[in-house]
Amino acid sequence: MSGETHQYCPLCRVEVTPSQRYPRYLCADCDGKATDEDGRPLVFSNECFSGGFIAQYADTGEVRDSHLCFVDGVKCRADEARFGGIIIQPVEDSVPRRAEQRHAPDREGR
Ligand SMILES: [Zn+2]
To answer: What is the whole-number distance in angstroms between the Cα of residue 17 and the centre of ligand 1?
Structure first.
């Protein structure tokens, strides 16, 4: 791998800033199209200045307790980016499930 690297949004193929850590992240346009499984628009943000992840419905502001979203019918996962902000990447459906996905408890006590 020499010379310039180019990276493209996996959905609309627009060029994005290359990221080794997030090789398949969605561009800002596609981020803005995220919805839940019923097509309701979602917005993602950091919980506080130091990070954290929060998903909310764009219309009501209601918090959604999930990282899953859909962009143009593609199942994606939104998450807190390492350096702040939010990263959305397509979920690899073809990847075999690792073990059993455990349901994280709503809020870990304490
Ligand atoms: Zn895009």
So the answer is: 12
